[in-house]
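User: Reviewer 2 asked us to show a designed sequence for the structure in our supplementary figure. I'm pasting the structure tokens here. Could you produce the per-position amino acids so we can include them in the response letter?
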């Protein structure tokens, strides 16, 4: 039985897109059939980062009820050399589509939730996907809440920035708890001298005390990870990089969950 994983955060820029993409690719490299979905309709970025400008249908069209989910799927397996394992379904990045999505009412969002929930049947059961990974908008956007409600696992990306820590704490307490989600935390952009030196165990207990959820991984701030370089599929392009090793461990933990 496949699983849905939402990658979320309180603040923007914590690394959700980088993480969701590289978790998806790592799982595909582990032989799982994976679909990465861009649910960040306010600021779609995967189409640009993955350099895909055309698709038969966007994920927006599926949620609008004008096409089926299989028409949105783009097979990018060739890019990572794992045939039939890595697919994406993308948010439409046009200004018109962004405006359209931000004007949706609650009734539409409820219907969209139904369509996201039904992916369990269409993608996981019928099409044999092992994982759907949702890249989301930060904070309490409706589309992100829909992803959280649908997901089996919520991966929360946070930095050690004070406002991020407090907001993440609140969100863990009020939101994820409400839906009784299996929530795990990734500390991202950690400065080596601040925290890594403290040792992994110390960091683990710090996270447990602060957030009361398990720590899925700690990722240092790597200067060479930069969107500008267009290396979003980092784990494929840099197999020997420490980031790739950390992502390997994170993906293995997700597979065990
Ligand atoms: N560990 C890291 N080391 C260095 N740079 C990083 C790291 N993680 C993320 N970044 C960089 O930080 C920026 C933001 O990352 P990303 O776009 O993945 O965040 P996001 O949470 O998806 O942002 P948004 O909320 O805007 O969607 C990118 O330029 C990315 O390359
Ligand atoms: Mg993002």
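Assistant: Here is a per-position design you can include in the supplement:
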């Amino acid at each position: 039985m496949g699983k849905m994983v939402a990658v979320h955060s309180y603040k923007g820029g914590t690394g959700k897109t980088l993480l969701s993409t590289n978790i998806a690719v790592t799982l595909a490299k582990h032989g799982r059939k994976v679909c990465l979905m861009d649910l960040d309709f306010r600021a779609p970025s995967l189409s640009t980062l993955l350099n895909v400008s055309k698709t038969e249908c966007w994920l927006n069209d599926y949620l609008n009820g004008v096409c089926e989910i299989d028409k949105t799927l783009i097979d990018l397996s060739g890019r990572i050399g794992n045939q039939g394992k890595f697919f994406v379904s993308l948010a439409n990045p046009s200004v018109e589509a962004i405006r359209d999505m931000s004007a949706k009412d609650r009734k539409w969002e409820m219907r969209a939730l139904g369509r996201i929930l039904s992916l369990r049947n269409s993608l996981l059961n019928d099409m044999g996907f092992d994982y759907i990974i949702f890249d989301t908008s930060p904070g309490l956007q409706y589309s992100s809440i829909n992803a959280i409600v649908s997901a089996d696992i919520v991966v929360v990306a946070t930095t050690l920035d004070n406002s991020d820590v407090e907001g993440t704490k609140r969100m863990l307490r009020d939101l994820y708890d409400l839906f009784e989600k299996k929530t795990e935390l990734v500390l991202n952009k950690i400065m080596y001298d601040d925290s890594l030196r403290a040792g992994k165990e110390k960091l683990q207990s710090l996270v447990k005390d602060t957030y009361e959820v398990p720590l899925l991984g700690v990722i240092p701030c790597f200067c060479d990870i930069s969107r500008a370089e267009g290396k979003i599929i980092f784990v494929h392009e840099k197999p020997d990089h420490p980031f790739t090793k950390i992502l390997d461990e994170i993906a293995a933990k997700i597979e065990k969950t």
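For the response letter, you might also mention the following. The domain at 3-256 is CATH 3.40.50.300 (Rossmann fold). The chain has one domain: 3-256.
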